[in-house]
Amino acid sequence: MKIAVVVQRYGHAVNGGAELHARYIAERLARHGEVEVLTTCTTDYVTWRNELEAGVERVNGVQVRRFKVKHERDPLVFAKRSDRVFEQRHSLGDELDWLDAEGPTSPALVDYVEKHASDYDYYLFFSYRYYHAYYGVKAAAARAILVPTAERDETIGLSIFQPLFRSVRAIMYNSPEEQAMIRAVSGNDNVPGVVVGVGSDVPNNPQAHRFRQKYNIRGPFAVYVGRIDQNKGCKELFEFFHGYLKDPSSRLSLVLIGNTLLPIPEHKRIRHLGFLDDTDKFDAMVAAEVLIMPSYYESLSMVALEAWALGRPVLANGKCDVLKGQCLRSNAGLFYETLGEFIGTLEAIEQNRWLAGSLGRNGKQFFRDNYDWPVIERKYLEMFERLKKESRVPEANPAPGWLDRRRQDLPAAQDVLAKLPTGPAVRRNG
Amino acid sequence: MPDFNVRSDSVNVEQIMAQIRERIREKRGVDYTEQQIRELADVKLERFLDPRGVRSDLLDQFRKAQPAYEPPELPNFAFEDATLFESHRAPIRWIRKLLMPLLKLFFNPNPLIQALHIQSRLNTMNAEREARRESARRAMDQLYYELVHNLVVETTRTGIEVKNLKMRIESIASRLEFNERRARALESAVVYRTESDDAPAQRQASSSTPSRQQTSSHQPQARPTPSVTSVAPVPIAPMPTAVTPPTTTQGQPAPGQQQGSGVPGEGPGQRSRRRRRRRGRRGGGAASVVMGVSGSPTPDSSNAQGSTEPMEPADALDAIDEDGASEAEDIDETPVEREVLADAVAPAEEIARGQQEREPAEPPLEDARAEQAAAPIAEATSAADTQPAAPTTPATHEPSATVAPPDTPATPASSAAPVEPAPSPAAPDHADHDPQ
Question: pTM of the prediction?
């Protein structure tokens, strides 16, 4: 079995959620067959600048084939086109222009997929929103399996992606919420799909005291791991945590791990440690009382899964359906939507060790049942087997004609998004 | 303390969240947003300013209803020196100018012209000033209105905050109370002793004062002799309770259990410090033994003998402690001593019991003082009785007075000196001290 993993960026230094997801899957599937990664020469998701050499190399034993990006992203053009398609009535042409502006525009990669479509048994396309997935699926629809990593943002409301979700052989979802959202927006109920997610290489013996000693951190603390960004809900996190600190009975400090795009509030109980390697990150998680996930948009929070794998409870933003659903299904995390709930839940975890321990144990079990690597690998292999037996021809997704591209009859993406069903999928142990 | 209860082993996040939300509603009331606060303030304004109903955008409406001030065009007449002779017809104007000198022959129009000119200027100035005043007043009105509006907003916010703070204070108070209860529970758990350990300590505490006096005087004796007569200082009687149940000791239900366990609330560290101090004092006693001075006063004995002043509270606590539970612990730690004490105390119990039968009641304090004045023999005993922090019981007090022969030296220490006996029940120090 030969599988191609197609992803926008790939490499050791690439730590984006979908990219890391793709790398983990590629490395794991390489144990069961021949895997080749098709990707671009970029490492920066903002500019999509060509920074790596085109050609073939090996990363962790997996062959990686890189292709040049045709042009970098122009932030002004991209913002203008985003406003157009997200907020106004527009045409298919506008959406295709937006896709081109978003990048990474790599026709060479798509050409390769088209020409070598029959060389691989399956193509695993990661991240539906990018150029390589949209045109790559068109080039190899009969062998395309999509890992959408879709979040609840305006992009899901764009019309060009609806046929994309219907024209693949199968979809590997990250969460039931993502599955429900994609089915609602595209009506792809007949496309085989399974909720898989991704595992994580959690070390066996992370050491809390080592972290405390190294960074001179004393006392109980909550940890946030990830990019410190307004889009990740960090601004709200800071506001809420300030509210928590006003409570005289509060004891937790906040430790932030990750690169920051926001000014960190100056407070003796808020520490920013910057980007840490995996060892320190896992040590920090074990040392923490709770992991806070303030993000509004997640298709699957790997950090939350890692915290659960380490037996730590999670406090998630309840406005994110996926996180809320994970907390409910796993019984391993609490969630908040208001300041009062943030303080209440944080105090509950802080002051009730039994509760924190039970949540952590549930999380560990949830991770073991659903996100342990053997489970993930089995789901992928079963899907391959199923597709091998199936003879379903995916729905055709022809390129729009000249008139279709110019007809201004598509609703604003945010209007489409607003009509999608919301809320977590409260199916247990899913 | 957790704000909610989870009764089952399996956690149900939905249930926990429901409990947390319920708790939040109870504790903090409703969390108002800025918009909600403003709406509340607007509602208050409606009630306050216009009962017939004012919209929420009251300030904007107010501004719209009160446009910027435009001064009214008041009638004014510009009066110049040529105004009287002006005409729109040029020939008439020329004729009037020509006849001006003739007119001035009849009367002088200049003052009239000047007065009217001044009046005209005054009118203009007044109008301008009025316009300025009016515009300023209107601006101030708007400011006042904004101020009142903001005050109402802030008052509303403050009211809500006060309510929240009250809730928080209640929460903190309940937590404080809980912590105090927990601290007390922990202290009691730390100081806890079994009944058999506590009982002797209580009895020792109850008879601490005489025992101290006797202890110091007995220490010089090299080795106690377990004779019944020498055991006379009945305070020793409780000692066997270290090995026998308290209910059998003198048939008393160990009334001083609290004292026996040391000062309420003190930790083991304090007790061990006191024990070390006491051992230091015993060291002094041992030195006197080495010196061979019978009845030589130790600091304790001199204190007991030389003064009838009440003991300082700290010393009293010390005494209680020395003779209390810690000593019981010491006894427990030395089984050999315990055996000897058990042998020695049995006759002492009998003696004490007999004395109880003879003098069941303790003489009043006044009586004791009278005795002290009359008979120096009883001086030390009275002094011991007057020590406030070391209450004596009849069982412990009486024997010391009755057993000692009338012609023996006044203090029990000196009286017991020649026949230092077996360990004294009231002086567990003896038990510790007893050289085996």
Answer: 0.54
